[in-house]
Predict the 3D structure of the following.
Amino acid sequence: MFKITTSLKKIHKLKKRVKIVQGSSSSGKTISILIILIDKCIDTPLLEVSVVSESIPHLKKGALKDFLKIMKSTGRFIEKSYNGTDRKYTFSNGSYMEFFSPEAILGARRDILFVNECINISFTDYHQMAVRTNKEVFLDYNPAHEFWANTELEKDTDVEKIILTYIDNEECPDNIVTELHKARDKAHESEYWRNWWQVYGLGLMGTIEGTVFEGFTSIQAFPTDCKWIAYGMDFGYTNDPTTLVKCGFKDGELFFEQLIYEKGLTNNDISARLKALNIGRGEIVADSAEPKSIAELQRLGWNIRGAVKGKDSIVNGIDLIKRHKVNIVSTSLEMIKEWRAYSYKYDKALNKYYNEPEDFNNHTIDACRYCLSFKLVKQPSSPGIHVTRNYK
């Protein structure tokens, strides 16, 4: 059963047409908005509500998952009322909530619009949806940087905004609070942690200065006509995930798809995942810091090799990626999150960024570098474990 939190009370007080909810991690902003929308649907017959996020995979792991959890935990969910194919729940009074990505509903009309993590969609898409919304608009986001909600909307008279933090969410689990406080205690150590705590701890505006990569193109599926396809792997276990990224090259562009992003995997587990993914004899280039893992996976029949680490290899690997337009399959949620957050180190004394990235948000990116260093810059393998030049 969901309890009434301070976050929910604060959002309830918003009365203007456009309601902007800026907040930290675990502030309860998305769940609170969904609870309000569910109550509105129950109380108002024939209400049409659209919940939108940057992609269907993002919705399924976020707002849609939260919606179903709320409905089931409060005893309101009726199986026959939910169309899983269309991601649409119809209430007994004819009201409904539908869950889509922007491209699917730009021409549709509705009574209420909720754009979840609106910082990840364009102003053009938002505006097209807003002008087709009859009553209210809800927007929520972590303020990683200034964007159109701040520059285009905040000055309008029919807009109001609140800022929430995890402190407003009395239901925030203790272990999450502990992790947030770890970040708080590191805020003085580097620009990365200062900015992270500013955004995800305090819910205040951050900056995109120092990020390694610019934008990428989100695609629905990995192309089948690439010039070549191979795989990059970064090993992890307790603290870091093991990652596998499918990499392809076509018409001078790079294509990436996250296939594995999971902690606690043994080598036998990895082998099982590779089999389930039907990798076959596909080339896998992995972190050579784990020679025993590479050797064991080779004995299990996989076409895997280690990647050589050398001087300036990280910087060179990043440069290799930057030379090409990048496309990422929309289901690659953790990879997309890392791509947006990967940043350079900052020197406070000199007030400038190093040409060296922070060792965070890089598990899928390292996997990409391993693969590209083999496929785009081949070198002869060394004796023993098959290795190639690599950028780390």
Q: What stands out?
A: The two ends are 48 Å apart (CA to CA). The CA atoms of residues 215 and 315 lie 18 Å apart. The mean pLDDT is 91.
